[in-house]
């Protein structure tokens, strides 16, 4: 009598492990999200809902640390926010100061020890740190600290900041300023002690961070959509190089570096990452993406029967393209909301068809039609080719691809997990070659000028509209080479 071997239900230690690294799809990987509260008795619950709103920024781990002014209460776990926290756990997180974090990790770093907030004991009590971003010179600083006796418990950049603060003989605020002046990169930091909360943004404002208020309490988040969830009011963005100190004396606005750089908020926040209902730099993401689609239509019009967007991030731009051209917008592609890790390991044949698990073409909509397919970016090109083929298999007679960003040619060093430059199709091929590679009838990208105008308008403060466009133009706002140990991706 033979016995069948029951297949393992998932390939990692927990169901959602690796959900951000699906080899079938070459979309850019989400970063991380931070959320903070000062002065609210229900800070843990507010953090839970805030992190839930920021879930799209990181799906591999979540954590909340709360202070009751005398000691920390914290919990971290692998998986989604709703999987990490339950009712009993939330009831144990008591205090009116809190910081929380959702994390997307780079390959090899998906482990509980790297889940944030990181919590430490140091000379003045407890210290918790949460960040979104990447410290480019972290390997160099880490090596120096280890040579002088520091022992690291994680592979996270965030621990570097904790060591720099803990080793300083200065008070917390001055120690934090010195630490921020040593590091180079893009970051948004929340640092908590038993009775203080520090909030900081890198000197270029590369990573988003904003402040809101709920009654008399202050709240902070990577995106303003988290404020809507908890009923808080958006006050403003945290300025580049700014350091906010919140303690029993209230809110104090300070700086660790004077304004000497142009603001360089990551353009991909507008193109792809942020939720459509978030506001950044006074601009709503949905409205900005509609303007990108409209501008795309002006720059690269093509006669067609319908316009469709690749869900979810390109829907707004597709609506803008359709409104500008008068070509009807149709729901030609449907996203399966439950297309995370499958319970069984698919065969290679099924993996090749795997795009159909995530997207479906609506045959009755696209059959016999000339389709304009709007997408936000092309990374390796494999996803674009699969979606074009999907539309053709459903009967589309022509597929014209319009990308509402410039060609993505360079890796990011500031918190986006991007492939090596050699894997970026736009750095290896011309637009004509890419068009042939993805099996499209035509291909066009939004110009850098068009992107800046769509986001910042014609009255932008500088020629780049306060944006970092390094992934498009190779003009990085900071040094990226530190002894050959340059790092890209999100290693918070």
From TrEMBL:
The active site is at 32 (nucleophile). Residues 32-249 form the Glutamine amidotransferase type-2 domain. SUPFAM superfamilies: N-terminal nucleophile aminohydrolases (Ntn hydrolases), PRTase-like. Its cofactor is Mg(2+); [4Fe-4S] cluster. GO terms for molecular function: 4 iron, 4 sulfur cluster binding; amidophosphoribosyltransferase activity; magnesium ion binding. It is an enzyme of class 2 (transferase). Keywords: 4Fe-4S, Glutamine amidotransferase, Glycosyltransferase, Iron, Iron-sulfur, Magnesium, Metal-binding, Purine biosynthesis, Transferase. InterPro entries: GATase_2_dom, Ntn_hydrolases_N, PRTase-like, PRTase_dom, PurF, PurF_N. GO terms for biological process: 'de novo' IMP biosynthetic process; purine nucleobase biosynthetic process. NCBIfam families: purF. Catalyzes the formation of phosphoribosylamine from phosphoribosylpyrophosphate (PRPP) and glutamine. In the C-terminal section; belongs to the purine/pyrimidine phosphoribosyltransferase family. This is Amidophosphoribosyltransferase. It comes from Paenibacillus pini JCM 16418. The lineage of its organism: Bacteria, Bacillati, Bacillota, Bacilli, Bacillales. The gene is purF.
């Amino acid at each position: 009598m033979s016995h069948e071997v029951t297949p393992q239900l998932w390939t990692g230690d927990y169901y959602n492990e690796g959900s951000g690294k699906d080899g079938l799809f070459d979309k850019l990987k989400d970063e991380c999200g931070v959320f903070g509260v000062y002065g609210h008795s229900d800070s843990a619950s507010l953090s839970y809902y805030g992190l839930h709103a920021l879930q799209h920024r990181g799906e591999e781990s979540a954590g909340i640390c709360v202070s009751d002014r005398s000691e920390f209460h914290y919990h971290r776990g692998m998986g989604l926010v709703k999987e990490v926290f339950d009712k009993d756990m939330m009831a144990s997180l008591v205090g009116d100061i809190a910081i929380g974090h959702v994390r997307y990790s780079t390959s090899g770093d998906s482990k509980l020890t790297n889940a944030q907030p990181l919590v430490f004991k140091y000379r003045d009590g407890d210290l918790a740190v949460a960040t979104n971003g990447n410290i480019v010179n972290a390997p160099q600083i880490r090596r120096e600290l280890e040579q002088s006796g520091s022992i690291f418990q994680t592979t996270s950049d965030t621990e570097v900041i904790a060591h720099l603060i803990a080793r300083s003989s200065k008070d917390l605020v001055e120690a934090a300023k010195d630490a921020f002046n040593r590091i180079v990169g893009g970051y948004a930091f929340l640092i908590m002690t038993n009775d203080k909360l520090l909030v900081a943004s890198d000197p270029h404002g590369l990573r988003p961070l904003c402040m809101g208020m709920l009654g008399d309490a202050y709240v902070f988040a990577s995106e303003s959509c988290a404020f809507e969830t908890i009923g808080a009011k958006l006050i403003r963005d945290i300025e580049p190089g700014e350091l906010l100190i919140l303690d029993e004396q209230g809110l104090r606005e300070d700086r660790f570096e004077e304004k000497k750089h142009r603001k360089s908020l990551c353009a991909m926040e507008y193109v792809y990452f942020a939720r459509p209902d978030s506001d950044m730099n006074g601009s709503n993401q949905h409205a900005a993406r509609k303007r990108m689609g409209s501008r795309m239509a002006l720059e690269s019009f093509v006669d067609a029967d319908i316009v469709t967007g690749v869900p979810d991030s390109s829907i707004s731009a597709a609506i803008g393209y359709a409104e500008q051209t008068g070509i009807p917008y149709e729901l030609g592609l449907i996203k399966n909301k439950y297309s995370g890790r499958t319970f069984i390991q698919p065969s290679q044949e099924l993996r090749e068809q795997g795009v159909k698990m995530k997207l479906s073409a609506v045959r009755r909509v696209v059959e016999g039609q000339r389709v304009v397919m709007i997408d936000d970016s092309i990374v390796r090109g494999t996803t674009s080719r699969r979606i074009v083929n999907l539309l053709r298999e459903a009967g589309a007679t022509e597929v014209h691809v319009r990308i509402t960003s410039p060609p993505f040619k360079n890796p990011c060093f500031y918190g986006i997990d991007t492939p090596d430059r050699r894997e970026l199709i736009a750095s290896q091929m011309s637009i004509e070659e890419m068009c042939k590679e993805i099996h499209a009838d035509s291909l066009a990208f939004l110009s850098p000028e068009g992107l800046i105008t769509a986001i910042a308008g014609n009255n932008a403060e500088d020629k780049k509209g306060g944006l970092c466009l390094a992934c498009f133009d190779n003009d990085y706002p900071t040094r990226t080479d530190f002894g050959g140990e340059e790092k890209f991706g999100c290693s918070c």
